[in-house]
Amino acid sequence: MILILMLIVGMFMDIAAALIILGPILHPIAVGIGMDPIHFGMVMVLSLNIALMTPPVGACLFVACSISKISLAQLSKAIWPYIIMEVLCLFLIAYIPEISLFFPRLLGF
């Protein structure tokens, strides 16, 4: 539910503001359910970054439209397969913590 919340909030809110508002609220909940704080931070940043590319507000979409000289509607249609794959990767990273915690644990964190 936290992942879906962050994806929805990220669609309408800038990533910096979402991190400042949601971070202190969701961190104790995540730690309370046994989630590693480093893992939670990675999942939070990844989910909010994915949300930056989704319509209706998607700030990255406007940048890509201006660079590629195509309309927002064309780009929004073309980007959905990539968003679906990124959401699948997000759920893999969220539910298999060893994927994102391998290197921090290797370094002793």
Supply database-style keywords.
single chain; about 110 residues; mainly alpha; 6 helices; about 80% helix; elongated
Provide a concise account of the structure shown:
The protein is an all-alpha fold.
Word description of this protein:
The protein is an all-alpha fold. It has one domain. 81% of the residues lie in helices and 0% in strands. The chain is built from six helices and no strands. The protein is elongated, with a radius of gyration of 15 Å. The two termini are 27 Å apart.
How much of the sequence is in beta strands? under 5%
Structural class per helix/strand content? mainly alpha
Radius of gyration: 15 Å
Distance linking N and C termini: 27 Å
Average pLDDT: 90
Give me the count of strands.
0
- Please tell me the total number of domains: 1
Largest sheet: none
Shape: elongated
- Helical content (DSSP H or I, runs of 4+): over 70%
Low-confidence stretches: none
Please work out how many helical segments DSSP would assign.
6
Task: Please describe the topology of this protein.
Elements: H1 2-12, H2 15-32, H3 37-51, H4 59-68, H5 72-95, H6 97-106
Helix pairs in contact: 1-2, 1-3, 2-3, 3-5, 5-6
